[in-house]
């Protein structure tokens, strides 16, 4: 349950103001069909984060406990810093409208998540918790918590959320996980 809750919280917070949330706002404004957009976000996130979690599990199998502890600790600290950098939406991610609402959203979200901080976080979380299913469910739930309101409420909530505060909280969570990992908090789990 801890893997699910931490994964949900980290991705939910990190996603606020992220480029994929900006993409959700844009697609909602462009198509005005929230249900296929939300379904496509869900499918794209499951596919992307399942791949990322598999990479995290593979990394765990390749590294010894001491090396893994340092890699994860430093990765979480790097994620803390990265979370504080505002995202921008690439125009290439919004030029897929010829494929229809669902497919456009699916392709755009999947591509936008490649190498994104929430995908990298999913890799690290899967390596940290050794529980691919809980991590993928948690990161997907966190993604949906942040993006479904963006699709349905859009501009009504965009200006009311203090992005710096949310990013600061997410960065703090990543930093705490990084320091705890470096100090050996995962020793009981084998790393």
From TrEMBL:
InterPro entries recorded: GDT1-like
Transmembrane domains' residue ranges: 37-61, 67-84, 96-112, 132-153, 165-189
Subcellular location(s) per record: Membrane
Keywords: Membrane, Transmembrane, Transmembrane helix
UniProt key word Transferase: no
Membrane disposition: Multi-pass membrane protein
Major localization listed first in the record, in broad terms: membrane
Pfam families (UniProt xref): GDT1
Recorded family membership: Belongs to the GDT1 family.
Protein name (database record): GDT1 family protein
């Amino acid at each position: 349950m801890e893997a699910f809750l931490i994964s949900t919280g980290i991705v939910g917070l990190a996603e606020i103001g992220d480029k994929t949330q900006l993409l959700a706002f844009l697609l909602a404004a462009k198509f005005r069909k929230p249900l296929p957009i939300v379904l496509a976000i869900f499918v794209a996130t499951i596919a992307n984060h399942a791949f990322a979690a598999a990479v995290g599990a593979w990394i765990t199998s390749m590294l010894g406990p001491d090396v893994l502890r340092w890699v994860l600790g430093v990765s979480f600290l790097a994620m803390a810093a990265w979370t504080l950098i505002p995202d921008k939406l690439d125009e290439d991610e919004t030029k897929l409208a010829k494929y229809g609402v669902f497919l456009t959203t699916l392709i755009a979200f999947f591509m936008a998540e490649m190498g994104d901080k929430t995908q990298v976080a999913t890799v690290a979380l899967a390596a940290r918790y050794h529980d691919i299913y809980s991590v993928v469910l948690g990161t997907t739930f966190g993604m949906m918590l942040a993006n479904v309101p963006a699709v349905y409420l859009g501009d009504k909530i965009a200006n009311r959320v203090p992005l710096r505060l949310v990013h600061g909280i997410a960065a703090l969570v990543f930093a705490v996980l990084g320091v705890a990992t470096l100090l050996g908090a995962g020793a009981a789990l084998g790393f």
